[in-house]
Amino acid sequence: MKLIVGLGNPGKEYENTRHNIGFLFVDFYLDKKGINEKWTKKFDGEYLEANINGEKVLFLKPLTFMNLSGNSVRKIMDYFDIDVSDILIISDDLDIKVGNFKLKSDGSCGGHNGLRNIESNIGTTEYKRLKIGISKNIETDTKDYVLGNFSKEEKDTLKELFNNLVEVIDDYFKLPFGDLMSKHNRKNK
Known about the structure:
It is a single chain. By secondary structure, the protein is an alpha/beta fold. The protein is 36% helix and 22% strand. The chain has one domain (2-187): Rossmann fold, CATH 3.40.50. It contains six helices and seven strands; from the N terminus they run E-H-E-E-E-H-E-E-H-E-H-H-H. The protein has a seven-stranded mixed sheet, with helices on both faces. The mean pLDDT is 93.
């Protein structure tokens, strides 16, 4: 069983903000694949169960707010007995340009509080992640920037990227993670 976690903040006011790119992409992926199972509110989040290539996959959106995402991840891991090696975390990344992404198999949280809290709760930095670029604006306070909305141009760029990331997630279910990184990380501009 695999667990795919899209990070974000709950609530209408955060719906289309940069920090919610994990939520946004999970919803996009499920819609694109025609997966319309009902979300269940449990484990301090909402999750749904799908069958992809004959394997049970859980999709989770923690509802604890970004900085406490690990609480939800830990609860669902414990309940379903999911190993860290079967988790993929999807998050925003300020150090990657909008329109780009990076797959990583381990490493530090890079200052991302949601990832820091996940690491604290699961007890390791060795987990798979898909980091989606939101760029950085040095003229704006980081908190205000990540909680701000995307521009029209950024939304257009992200729509194209999200379409490409559907293939990345499809391949995630078929390829060893090292092969997945080799195949897709070099595609960035």
